[in-house]
Design brief:
The chain has one domain. The chain is mainly alpha-helical. The longest helix is centred in the last third of the chain and has 25 residues.
């Protein structure tokens, strides 16, 4: 059993927890702002901001890469969480960084596969990170509820992306931003909850 010292959050956990939302939400906000007319954040995906057709693809590419690094750093920092959850969080981070390295216009299949791995791992890690007998953010019920909510958002995105919804995918960008934004904020919420305790 790990000692209290080895399972404590490091001091750098909170700054690291800020990296993913800054990269993801800040990246898509800034990239969309410079994109200009013609880009619809409700309809168009985040990945469209990182294609060669985008006005400044480097902004969203850097945002995705930063998000991936943030998730990997959080996987290292979240010592109180179960290892299987930390491994899923790290997997999601590496897959997000690969999404940045493999733009959808140049590598559509590889991009899609990496995005699927990232979305899946980042939706499941809260449930996997829970510990039997834990209270608060790492309690099994909390982990299952958070993962359940993320999976509902992910399902909405998949329905929109495939054009199965009543609006034929008109809200694909909105659904993607909902799930990606929530996934980037969950590690921060966990760190804040653990620090409060």
């Amino acid at each position: 059993m790990p000692s209290a010292r080895s399972s404590a959050l490091p001091r750098w956990a909170l700054p690291s927890a800020l990296v993913a939302p800054i990269g993801m939400i800040g990246g898509w906000t800034l990239a969309a702002a410079v994109q200009g007319p013609g880009f619809d954040p409700v309809r168009d995906t985040i990945s469209a901001l990182a294609t060669q057709a985008a006005t400044a693809p480097a902004i969203m590419t850097a945002g995705l890469a930063l998000t991936g690094v943030g998730h990997v750093a959080m996987a290292v920092a979240l010592r109180p969480a179960a290892l299987r959850g930390r491994l899923l969080l790290a997997t999601g981070g590496v897959a997000t960084a690969l999404v940045a390295a493999l733009p959808v216009d140049a590598y559509p299949r590889a991009h899609g596969l990496c995005a699927a791995v990232a979305f899946g791992a980042l939706s499941l890690w809260p449930a996997a990170a829970s510990r039997r007998g834990a209270k608060g953010a790492l309690a099994p019920v909390a982990g299952v509820l958070v993962s359940g909510a993320l999976l509902v958002l992910l399902a909405w995105f998949v329905v929109e992306l495939q054009g199965f919804g009543p609006d034929d995918g008109a809200a694909t960008g909105l659904a993607e931003r909902a799930v990606a934004g929530a996934q980037s904020l969950v590690p921060l919420a966990v760190v804040l909850a653990l620090r409060r305790r």
